Amino acid sequence: MTLRLEKITPATLDSALAIRVRSDQEHLVAPVVKSLAEAYVHQETAWPRLIMDGDKAVGFVMAFLDIQWRDEDPADVRSGLWRLNIADGEQGRGYGRFAVDAVAQEVRRRGGTSLYSTWHPGPDGPEGFYRGLGFTLTGETSGDQTVGVLALG
To answer: Model-level pTM?
Structure first.
């Protein structure tokens, strides 16, 4: 595997838009097109990337970097995973783990010590994946999602 993250450009846009998760997971993660619209609106904090294996796009990851998490606490600035979409047929090959590690490296490079993520709870959700990577529950929720954190120390 020759894995890397690649910026979304005019040349890679169609590959990004073609990323689709398994049909039974569509209720768990927004489609890439919504993520790219959000990245456009939140250009200062969104970090969208294609997950590439050689010349093949196998997934999409978007991080949020240095956002104020709660309006009532200006000191609560966080970075983390906003979206992780691994293409149907590509799961179980280490692409998700690679993407989380790559985002963690970017957060560390920017001086961060924690990586946050949210996920839908329940038996069909990705909690096992995130907990297997070392994320711990914060006890918080974001809307109807569970919040987890990975110490990068």
So the answer is: 0.94
